[in-house]
Amino acid sequence: MYVPFYQGVYNLEDRKLKGIEVLARKKSKGRYISPYYFLPIIENMVLMNEFTQSIFLQTLAQIHTIDTSNKLDVSINVPPPLIEEQNFINFLRKNVIGGYNQSKFNLIIELTESAPITNKSSFIKMIKELQNDGLTFRIDDFGKDYCDFNTYFSELKIKEIKIDKSIVNGSQNTLQAVINFSDTLSVDLIAEGVETREKSKELLMLGIKHHQGFLYSKPSVIEKVALSI
Known about the structure:
Helix content: 40-55%
Largest sheet: 8 strands, mixed, barrel
Strand content: 15-25%
Number of helices: 10
Radius of gyration: 17 Å
Distance between the termini: 27 Å
Order of helices and strands: EEEHHEHHEHEHEHHEHEH
């Protein structure tokens, strides 16, 4: 059984929770297994559509238990090829759009870089329609694998990037290049994989105020998230 876990994204300027990212786990024999071990199997068996729909439905049912005075981002990962599947788009329109309290939550689809866009014109058309329907998009794991710069930033005007932890914790020259790129396009940044106070301070000095990582919180069940707000 696949279930949603949640990890916080924090605004370090005002010391508040900006949102939560949904991170799936597999529940087996009383243990929760990392997606590192099961996502490749799901992708190879062409089960990603069914898997992602299940995570969406469970998330929408669970976030209503969160009592928050501030509007929270709730982000869920979706690989680009799913956006090109009409069955998945129909699911979003029927079960997701309008299926949550929009005064309390801002639902965001994080486009992963695990697979390239296969039909660019169809992809752009679907994203624009979903944007018009009220969904927001951001780029996940930026700098890790595939990223179509022209499609995401020129055609779709996506305004938020999550920098992959390999760049956050890698060469400062590469990190600075990403910051310069984001400044040019007026794109907001979220740093992933922040695990030390030294790294947090460094990122703040570089102007990156939104952080996610084990330094602040580990992925957990919804009950623990609700208690931390």
